From TrEMBL:
The keyword Metal-binding applies. This is Coproporphyrin III ferrochelatase. The lineage of its organism: Bacteria, Bacillati, Actinomycetota, Actinomycetes, Kitasatosporales. InterPro entries: Ferrochelatase, Ferrochelatase_C, Ferrochelatase_N. Transmembrane segments: none annotated. Fe(2+) binds at H191, E286.
Amino acid sequence: MPDLLDASPYDALLLLSFGGPEGPDDVVPFLENVTRGRGIPTERLKEVGSHYFLFGGVSPINDQNRALLDALRKEFAEHGLDLPVYWGNRNWDPYLTDTLREMVRDGRRRILTLATSAYASYSGCRQYRENLADALAALEAEGLDLPRVDKLRHYFNHPGFVEPMADGVLRSLAELPEEVRDGAHIAFSTHSIPTSAADTSGPVEDHGDGGAYVRQHLDVARLIADAVRERTGVDHPWQLVYQSRSGAPHIPWLEPDICDHLEERHAAGVPAVVIAPIGFVSDHMEVLYDLDTEAADKARELGLPMRRSATVGDDPRFAAAIRELVTERAATERGQEIAPCFLGSLGASHDLCPVGCCPARAPRPAAAGADSPYA
């Protein structure tokens, strides 16, 4: 096991997230950041932002990241891990470039990054690495001495990520009426992405190139379904489903959509459903609207009892998992041989993204990988 007190050679952890608006006046500027370069008119952005306006123009993601920051700092302090934690976003304040600039001015030279996405895909990994490269390029243009920036491995199959979600499913099953509980179906939900992006996601070590996004989610779903069976003695049927599609209708995306799936399960005679949002670290807007609003409305329309289980959020087990991943990676950087912690059949993900991993349509520089210009 790595030394729980030793994060060297790293001297800081960066929490890297998507960001979200924190009031009505923020919604359109935030969406302009998200869609920059696509030429989408303001009126269309106001339509897209209707989900945010339903909740006062506030996305829950920033407050949830603040809670995770507090949990990480508490976890590190309780275990004597002397590692400051910073926070930067892709699309809203605090912006990534500003945070990296602050870290450089604080003297941070080896930075380890935690992205709030657990799985391999372009939008969940490679794009964050491109954002890091863009921020480093901006600091280089300012004449600053650049730090080395690495990224924690994918943590989808770490016990500290899987076990809180399994407990959430068990709690949701217990909340269902007793007469429908044992027959409940589990819909494991994640963000839909274009099938082309899913096909080129990865690679996963020892499992060939591509297809990692779906394969990793299926592995997590099986782990949770197995845990539920072991705890309850009931083998609940389940399926991986998708939500939050945002692309052009002519481009194939992963299916089935969660609302279509609820209709299909109801037609098949399923008495109840638990939706488990395994693709999301916290209950941000896509969980709040697409599941707690749209899918919940669909279930009520069908007369189908439904519960939505919790994401990991700031669960202490998740904070402990991040601490373990930090010290695991630090030990590897120091040349120590360690056994990485994981569940399931896919093994621990790579520490360094290989060349061509989760490629974009147009190649762009990406940090924290084998092809990084900022190694």
